[in-house]
Write a structure and sequence with these properties.
By secondary structure, this protein is mainly α. 61% of the residues lie in helices and 5% in strands. It is built from six helices and two strands, in the order αααααββα. The chain has helices spanning 2-15, 20-42, 59-78, 87-90, 94-114, 133-157; strands spanning 123-126, 129-132.
C-alpha cells in the first residue's frame, strides 16, 4: 500500500505542471525503473540463473526481458524502428545484463523526457494497432509493473527484501 500512496503523493506534484498526464506517466515509469534496476543490482550473480520452475524465465532472463521491452515500447513512442537488442537471449552475466538494462532505460528516458500532453495524443503503431503515444508509454509502465511483481517473488524466494519494501521508500523524481 505504501508504494501506491507515494505514487499518489507524487502525482499531486505532477498535476501542478503544464503537462500533468505525461508528467504523471513519467513519474510512474521512473519509480518502476528505479525498483527494477535496484532489484537487478540486489540479486547476487549466483541467482541470475535461478528459475523457480522449469516453465518460467530465470531471474536474468526476466531482467533482460524488461530491458528488451523498453526498446519495444519506447521505439514505438519515438516513431523509431525497434533496435531489437535481444538482451534476454544474449546476456547471461549480471554485469552485462545490468549494463544493458541501464542502456535500455536511457533509450526509453528519451521517450518520456520528450513527451507532452499534446504529443501524447499522437497515434503510433504498436502490435499492429494505432495507439496514442500516451497509451504506449502507459503500457510500458504496466508491463514493467507486471514483471516487477515477478521480480519481487524471485527476490523473496531468495530472502532478499525488494526495493519497494525497504524503509523508507524514497519517492522517484523524474529527471528534468
Amino acid at each position: 500500500m505504501r508504494p501506491l500512496i507515494l505514487i499518489l503523493v507524487a502525482a499531486t506534484a505532477a498535476l501542478a505542471q503544464d503537462n500533468p498526464l505525461s508528467a504523471f506517466n513519467k513519474m510512474a515509469y521512473t519509480q518502476m525503473k528505479t525498483w527494477v534496476l535496484a532489484s537487478a543490482e540486489k540479486m547476487p550473480e549466483s541467482n541470475y540463473a535461478f528459475q523457480p520452475t522449469d516453465s518460467i524465465r530465470t531471474f536474468g532472463h526476466l531482467i533482460g526481458h524488461v530491458g528488451d521491452a523498453q526498446y519495444l515500447f519506447c521505439s514505438a513512442a519515438l516513431g523509431e524502428k525497434n533496435p531489437g537488442m535481444a538482451i534476454e537471449k544474449t546476456k547471461t552475466a549480471k554485469a552485462d545484463i545490468i549494463t544493458s538494462l541501464k542502456e535500455a532505460f536511457a533509450y526509453c528516458d528519451k521517450a518520456y523526457d520528450a513527451m507532452t500532453d499534446v504529443a501524447a495524443t499522437e497515434k503510433v503503431s504498436l502490435f499492429g494497432r494505432q495507439l496514442p503515444k500516451f497509451g504506449v508509454l502507459s503500457a510500458n509502465v504496466m508491463h514493467m509493473s507486471e514483471h516487477y511483481g515477478n521480480i519481487v517473488t524471485y527476490l523473496r524466494l531468495k530472502n532478499i527484501v525488494p526495493p519497494s519494501s525497504e524503509t523508507p521508500v524514497p519517492p522517484a523524481q523524474p529527471k528534468k
